[in-house]
Amino acid sequence: MRYCINCCIHLLPNDLHRQCFRCRGPNHNNQKCPVCRGENKIPLYTDSKQMKLLAVLAVRTDHSESWNGFFCLRKGKLCSLIFGLIIMTLVMASYILTGAKHGLLLIPSPFHYGAFTSNPSLMDNESLSDMKDHYQPSKMNISYVKDYPSIKLIIDTITSKIEFITRQRPDLEELRKQEPHMFSVIPNKFLPNSKNPCWYEEYRGNTTTDPYATNSYALYSKRFRTIFDYLRKVFWNHLYHYKDKHYRLRCLPHFYIIGQPKCGTTDLYDRLRLHPDVRFSASKEPHWWTRKRFGIIRLRDGFHDRYPVEDYLDLFDLAAHQIQGVLQSEAAKERGKMNNIIIGEASASTMWDNNAWIFFYDNSTEGEPPFLIQDFIHAFQPNAKLIIMLRDPVERLYSDYLYFASANKSAEDFHEKVAESLQLFENCMLDYSLRACVYNNTLNNAMPVRLQVGLYVVYLLDWLTVFDKDQILVLRLEDHASSVKYTMHLVFQFLDLGPLSEKQEALITKSPASNTRRPEDRSLGPMLPTTKAILRDFYRPFNTKLAQVLFDDAFLWKRT
């Protein structure tokens, strides 16, 4: 079978293909016709079977047509290339937005992670074999040796800018101007026969009045509603009636566990509340001084209505009822018995969280807050006692990360967040003072991990500007973990608590630890040795100063 490629007409044997538009006349001869003889065309032969063409194959020697085909080919390749780039861009955007940290990074970080071996002395004298036991880098991990000098430069810059300058303490009148309502509610004198700071306040409601109807803690938190439901039922029974007037007993805490988060404050709280003479607020951490009085429920949710001081005092009503029972007992009236029940409050944000000041207080000096939490606590309670529980700031930061991070948690991800936070902190220190950076709300919210919480000495020095040193007890979690009985005895002595029976003491000291690391977090293992070395360098000057202030080298955390 034969096909005329020029004509594309199906030809049978001996057919003169009269239908060919390029052939003329009935006497046409295939051999003489220049078109059909093969000039300027290429005939295509197949077998003798009849078949149908599904496409037209035209092969021409025309050079212009050849160039047209070439350009069509180039256009096709260009379109394919553009389409491929678009797909790759979409894939990269999707990868980055999901925050994936494992495997091959499409956008490599300037800070790599891996086994750091260039300076073993920076690893607290850990040997290379010890490091390998802690962490085996994957094939994709790149050694940190190349990048460590650049991070060390960041830390050196921060260290060179550190100055521990004593802050100016505001006077009482300035504080009154900032919080007039608070000063109108809390008196400057308390009941003389109560160890805990308490006073009587006139109650002007009647038996049908709900004293907790507007309490913000009850309105915004479900966990408080059960407590306030109970308080409503017993409220009227605990009023003191005198000369046709009704009075309720109000109390503030005698002591505060002020910090730090992830340092064992929950365990200390759980053990202390087992003491027969100790009571706490309705919840462990009201966060009133640092957040609720400014209207902060959750930082990510912005500001709400400010919680008045009355809402905070309501949290101590259960304890106040018990104190009132002691004060109103016949034995107490006859013998002038002293109430020995004390109330505690354990918001671990009290020591360090002053992030809200910038939204409420004017007259800041070069970015430093003019008023701090301790200024107001001291104004009302100059004799308050403060307990601080600390731990190695390097380990505290990793524990903090594991507790609060919600997704993609890993030692590698923690490492990247530490590197980013150090860069942000350095940028602040280049323009502002240490105190301004530590209390900088914008910086603290921008850092992926809370580096600033581990700068213990900065906060402690600011608390020491208003409170005497003997009013502050500083403990180490490491000591508490090794000997609960020893640390609890220190706390009992500090709070002037009475002696306990052996059974009571055993109950307090031998109960299991509270708020330990979750199993899923323990499975992630320790931080990378390189990350630990970096954080050791960063916290070293602050730990050195802390040890000097407390006259205790244990706060250097050389071995933890």
Automatic annotation (TrEMBL):
InterPro entries: CS_Sulfotransferase, P-loop_NTPase, Sulfotransferase_dom
PANTHER family in the record: CARBOHYDRATE SULFOTRANSFERASE 15
Transmembrane segments: 78-97
GO biological process: hexose biosynthetic process
Protein name per UniProt: Sulfotransferase
Residues annotated as domain Sulfotransferase: 253-517
Superkingdom per UniProt: Eukaryota
Sorted UniProt keywords: Membrane, Transferase, Transmembrane, Transmembrane helix
Keyword Membrane: yes
Classification via Pfam families: Sulfotransfer_1
Keyword Metal-binding: no
Enzyme class: transferase
The enzyme's E.C. designation: 2.8.2.-
A GO MF term: N-acetylgalactosamine 4-sulfate 6-O-sulfotransferase activity
Similarity annotation: Belongs to the sulfotransferase 1 family.
